[in-house]
Amino acid sequence: MQTLETIEAVRKQVNLWRQAGETIGLVPTMGALHAGHQSLIERAAEENDHVIVSIFVNPTQFAPNEDLTSYPRKLEEDQALCAKAGVEVIFHPEPQEMYPSGFDTFVEVHGTTEVLEGASRPTHFRGVTTIVLKLLQIAQPDRVYFGQKDAQQVAVIQQMVRDLNVPVEIIACPIIREADGLAKSSRNVYLNPAERKAALVLSRALNLARQRLNAGTREPKELIQLIIEEISKESLARIDYVEIVDQKTLQKVETINAAILVPIAIYIGNTRLIDNFYWEAK
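and the corresponding structure tokens:
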């Protein structure tokens, strides 16, 4: 396994694989890898001849008041996980490699970005789409892998790839959870023991909503109120948003008669966590 720090070095390796007619899977990450990332990497290894993992804490997707400087960075641990999971190249550039002096071009996707995370973090997706398109240009993968925990990100990238005719397949992989239900996240390390216990309210509230859907409820307002009431029982939790939206457009639905996404964002203490589930009638 190689850890490469320059675009030129990655492109040189990619060109060799391309000349041999071999396929490439890309897993974009910001590092601090966990079992969720590992599941993406392992699937990429199963479905492609070669796997590239990018490890880059992307500054353009953080607002000034967010956790760019404190975001966990664990390169040696990440390298060990990647080596075991079948990665051949880690792309680990410095910020100036991706955003050199004079850089002033950004990708903006509209429609799917103004809601949910985009409403709470207005500059976030411009940074996400810009870095993902750059990574796709550099790695030229056949397939790129994302986790469904970041469901809005998946929808935004799918729209970008479709609108800009990028020749890559987007693979969305299931959320990986702890044994007690908490979705795996690099930000879970911020939680103290009391907050870690309190964070279980995310999956607990979503499970209640899923059960009510399966029992026949089709009114979004009723389900949203159910989630809010459950979260409100946890004193350390503060709601950012609770929504029920169309899976593809991410727009609110008045009645549930098609495939939906139920996303939530909650602060546990000072840590912002997201979770969700997809649902459609059987």
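(Above: one complete record from the training split.) The chain is about 40% helix and 20% strand.
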